């Protein structure tokens, strides 16, 4: 009798493991992947997903946080539990055809800002990398240009950037500060951008998450910041009003996209949800709630007061916006991320 | 583990093997299999060969990170030992009640969530935080530990303390105090008796604690990620970057394998050191 116990136990273990495999939901439901609790995901829930459920009867579950690594693991294992994923534009463009599927947008294809829609990635939120300063520190003579961020002599103090992904305009900001004209940014001179960052390295904090960056800014652990507009918006909304936006400086613009993982069993439904999310009404409602720039050019969100200084599509930002070259980033992403991560850990 | 009567040991051994099955099954499914996959991929992608290892070992930055990880783990281990040894000694000397209290204190970190503990350190170490004010008060200005290797080390020493204290005090409680009296009667004064008699007898506990703390420090992720900065990233964070940002599963596997081999080397060296003491490195825990 004791001899059988090992076999029984092993069998039980294997059954247990099989039972734990990803649950894939029912036919009339979708899994939407965002970044976790916060204004961004809450905005998607109330402005897009709930109205979609009302309209179609499809229930949408939110999972997260979004991760291309997890998506890759799912696709490779042939067990895709995600149907629509919110991710960064260039990684979606890079993974097009291998990890994510093309999405046919039909007549909506022309609704997005020029050059931002890619075959697999449908823009849903735009961000501007915004220069901010702590007014308690520089109240008397605030910084006025991007170059001031990189000038330790004139503006001593702790700088903070988000550093987990350099494709949010981090390198573009350095090159613009160094005098590269905005129409000649690409191909990016990564070496030059890093040499600009070398100037402030001793006073630079690199945050690996946006939450960490916000936390450090709110807790006065930094004096100057380059921060994406949606995060600046929630920082200001949370009451960190000592942080001011530097007006009139160039703003590198990047965006997030919605993608459909390759092998999603409900890909047609997923694409339908993406088209729904891209309509002007939903796009505007989401932008208002999350403090992001709307993806549909016809969308006219009405931001509260604090959102206006950060509104990248505002008329006053016409000459300041510098849209990311998503094709260049998709082609060079691996190399640039590697160089950046070597630089920051080196 | 249990001190069975030696005569019955052989009997127990043959019967006991199936008791290992639950643990073995869990390890097989949730550890061995994934590990095998990771190792296989580190050799087979993008093409079969050693390319991932060449890129890890031939990359100056990766080597620097690995060395930094080893150095940090060593510093943490030494610091933990320095803090834990007197503490464990006190624990082995005091009465039952006091020992209970001391054990409670050292186990406290175990019962607190990892995140809560790390955020507590975050608040303590930040600019304008409690530690800075404390140092200010005694005349040392501008101490900001957050984002520095020192800050990470301080927090990790606290996390690691129980892993050092428990094996140490287990060993110490088993040390026969009359040996010290004997040494005294033979002319060895307190410090000499301690160094020549007590310290060597406590070595099994030291080695057990050191090996656990060092190995755990090598792979630590949350504390350095939260309290440190990418500029001082340790190996686990760099592996994280490779997986999450570069989607380079094979390269991450290679770096993980390098770390694993280093860990095994450390284990081998420590058990070599422990051999003359007549006990394995884990043996210190056996004596309670």
UniProtKB/TrEMBL annotation, chain A:
Localization annotation: Periplasm
UniProt keyword list: Periplasm, Signal, Transport
Write down the superkingdom of origin: Bacteria
Protein's UniProt keywords contain Repeat: no
Q: Does the keyword Cell cycle apply?
A: no
PROSITE patterns per the UniProt record, alphabetical: PROKAR_LIPOPROTEIN
- Any Pfam family: SBP_bac_8
**Signal sequence region:** 1-23
> Which PANTHER family does the record associate with it?
THIAMINE-BINDING PERIPLASMIC PROTEIN, THIAMINE-BINDING PERIPLASMIC PROTEIN-RELATED
Q: What is this protein called?
A: ABC transporter substrate-binding protein
Task: Read off the lineage from the record.
Answer: Bacteria, Bacillati, Actinomycetota, Actinomycetes, Pseudonocardiales
Automatic annotation (TrEMBL), chain B:
Put simply, this protein is called: ABC transporter permease
Q: Where in the cell is it found?
A: Cell membrane
Give the principal location in a single coarse category. Answer: membrane
The way this protein sits in the membrane is described as:
Multi-pass membrane protein
Phosphoprotein as UniProt keyword = no
> Transmembrane ranges?
18-40, 70-89, 101-124, 144-166, 178-199, 205-228, 249-270
Q: Which Pfam families match?
A: BPD_transp_1
Q: Which UniProt keywords apply?
A: Cell membrane, Membrane, Transmembrane, Transmembrane helix, Transport
Q: Tell me the superkingdom of the source.
A: Bacteria
Family assignment from sequence similarity: Belongs to the binding-protein-dependent transport system permease family. CysTW subfamily.
Q: Which InterPro entries match?
A: MetI-like (IPR000515), MetI-like_sf (IPR035906)
Outline the extent of the ABC transmembrane type-1 domain: 66-271
Q: Which Gene3D superfamilies match?
A: MetI-like (1.10.3720.10)
What is the source species? Amycolatopsis minnesotensis
